[in-house]
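Design review, sub-item: ligand-bound model
Attendees: FS, YL, KQ
YL presented the inputs for the guanine complex:
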Amino acid sequence: MTSSPAAPTVRAIRADLLDFTATPAWGDASDNPGGSVRFRPDHWLLIGADGRITGVQAAATFEPAPGIERHDHRGRLLLPGFVDSHVHSPQVPVMASYGTELLDWLNNYTFPSETAWADAGHATRGTELFLDALLAHGTTTAAVYPTVHKASAEALFAGAQARGMRVIGGKVLMDRHAPDGLRDTVAQAERDSIDLIQRWHGRGRCSYALTVRFAPTSTPEQLAMAGALARAEPTLYMQTHVAENRDEVRWVAELFPQARSYLAVYDDAGLLHPRSVLAHGIWLDADDRARLAASGAHVAHCPTSNLFLGSGLYAWRAASAAGHATSLASDVGGGTSLNLLRNAAAAYTVQALQGQRLTAWVALHAATRGGAEALHLGHELGTLEPGLMADVAVWDWSTGSLDAERQRVARGLHERVFAWMTLADERHLAATWVAGQERYRRSTT
Ligand code: GUN
Ligand code: ZN
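KQ shared the predicted structure:
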């Protein structure tokens, strides 16, 4: 948080404000577990000229001064913008592809589609569509995989910067087991990565992630190169996939017979550290979870993807008990929605299938403050704390007679928010703000 004096308040948004001040306990569906939930109905969120939150005031007793731009969303819900910790910018065209599990899905649909991003103009157009779609689904921060092509990472950073969005991303590393036009080499990948790091890491709201697609598409030499870059610059992120699908896990065991586990392939290469974001983590064992906790790395849980591709059920409670964080992610195009509410609802289902209960608090915390903290961005975003960036989204509690009726009968805050999380989607989104600028507004508000 900044210690310099706050910029003067220039605009104010009126709504029901919801955020988290601590991590809610697993399974506690009370209205405010351990004081972690902060619900402030009918308040003004005040925003400074620098795009940061300057304060919060109750609408009953406060009137914004003349000259302050007002956005009156009374009766709506305002949350921090969602943090999507794992999503693929080129995969909008492969969403909802029929009939395959992971490895065939990659070979039949995803790799062929990603080869088209060799064309920089195509990559730029696809990236613009993708970033605008994130905003139209309530997401203001994302950890993104573009493609193997350097220009696709350029397009991501430039597009995010033009919108003021916080992004983490990097050119995808893949030098084997992929079609022509979608492979790099160790030397080229190293050159491209270093150049992109020098120009984009820490510029504006962009951070670079060494982006190993997954162990099967990188040679041991490429993993070692990525590990060396990680050691040389500890502020870099690392993102990859791990233990998503059983056939994939068997293949990794064949490719890396010396590794204790799939996770150990990355660990052995020096790629497990507090800024490592590992997607899926379904088929991990207790030793892997302990190692994740000890390393400070965390898992990006991708529930709509895991259900759609038939990958398996993520053991969120075991992860939490082992002491590593879990963030929430869409994994589009394996995932079927960019909207983290749809993914939160799917996450509830994934837990229900294992006899567990995911509260709205645990899910929405993972989509906001929890995701921000897991990505070491808690000082910048994820709550409505003064000094943080005004990255926020305003939602309707209901848009039709059915969910309105469900809201009307809800007893207590958890029931109300849980019903909202489960029934709402991006059609409930009224507006999205990034660094204090309105970047999306529903045309029918
Ligand atoms: N594993 C390697 N690449 C991918 C990808 O693009 N999507 C998913 N879901 N898993 C992967
Ligand atoms: Zn993915």
